[in-house]
Amino acid sequence: MSDNVIIFDTTLRDGEQSPGCSMTTPEKLKVAEALVELGVDVIEAGFPIASPGDFEAVRAVAQKFGDRATICGLARCRRDDIERAAEALKGIAKPRIHVFLATSPIHRQFKLKMAQQEIVKAAVEHVKLAKSFCDDVEFSPEDAARTELDFLCEVVEQAIAAGATTVNIPDTVGYATPTHYFKVISHLKQHVSNINRAIISTHCHDDLGLGVANSLAAVEAGARQVECTINGLGERAGNAALEEIVMALKTRHDYYGVETRINTPKLCGVSRLVSSITGMLVQRNKAIVGQNAFAHEAGIHQDGILKERTTYEIMRAEDVGYIGTNLVLGKHSGRHAIRSRVIELGYQLGDAQLQQVYDDFIALADKKKNVYDADIVALIDNRMNVSADRWKLVRFHIAAGTGTIPTATVELRDESVAPPTTSDTTIGRSSVTFRDAAIGDGPVDAVCKAMERIIGITAELKDYQVRAVSGGEDAQGEASVEIIYLGRRYHGKAISTDVIEASALAYLKALNKALGEQPSEATAKGV
Ligand code: KIV
Ligand code: ZN
Fold it and tell me: Is 142 in the pocket of ligand 1 (CB under 6 A)?
């Protein structure tokens, strides 16, 4: 048995199915690039039949990265689905078509209304069809963990005989437990006569919080591909988290004895990127990539760490690219010092980007006594997060306090309008900048309402969070909002030393997204 575990990332497909996590094609390309650099073996880029947006995204990822990783497209057991997936992956070096069909009694009876032998027949026919387009075909008996073992063996055996090179055993509803799942994989290894002709894969959802534990149990039983997502994104409670699986296999190499190709110092960077693009915040105490993952608070622990790091640390922070709150640079630090710190933090910026980050740093250092690594990272992420937004915040003023009605006056610039050649005499507006005022339940609400009045749309605020980027009273605030506009969710994130400004910028970012590019319709696909 190989001692290499294939890492199959499905952040762009199953991860995108998390409510509010739809990504645009440019955003998917950014994530795909980070995944390639991270060293994942297979990227499931989407479900091409789901929508034209999904098709385009899979095609774009395939065209750009199809020679650096295997790019996979999902398809139901339907001719149209498979042809569409094949079309999206056409011409690339390493395409994979992933065909799935539910096998559990519940799905057979209530969803598919198909008998066991009809399922086998459909699986075989569609694996063969996929095989006519590419050699690398994966088959998933959906809800495998709740499927009768004898029937599961039959479907898997027939799918392999039809040409499947990977057989994925999904725990679609997160029902399995580690020992149970270990037994399922072991049973397949013992009872499927041709099992050695395919790689066994795991795909575990986290409904009982066991996704990672189940995936590891499957590896122990002989699975050699793990399907997972960055930050554990995915349907409902999510999928098994890539960073946790990879670090468990690495840290407990003594026990599992297997390797992955993952460049682990990039883990925290990719986690931040995905969080910033999807708006899905990472909980502070999240394993591996959470802000507290390497923070030691108790005196006894700190003392132990100072004497010998391994007393309380099983992994080195640098092995996952963790960035703590080291005091870094001051206002007088030069461009060279910033450049080397940015590189040490794992970023590669061009000269223009570096200059912007440097300017932001100087502006920040003017307002804030201590600048930490986390501040630098937030500045870089903020710059990378800049898109061609139509509306820009020029200035705002608020009046708020006990006994007053929170009021905001806002000026926005419409970047889609050419600057005026002569001044416009209309009160309160020129051809490119627009002003308005509004009252609200609080200052943030008033600013958001004033911006909506200018832009002419009304969105529903679904989620709003503010957190301090680093420590200290003068810490930068990072605001994160999620809005619903015309039935779709959009998110925005921004930083500032002024939390009302951060909130206004985050809200404006979300409004700009709502007005601009429409994300793919992945959430409507019903997988
Ligand atoms: O959870 C699941 O069963 C899936 C399949 C499409 C593999 O996502
Ligand atoms: Zn899934």
Answer: yes
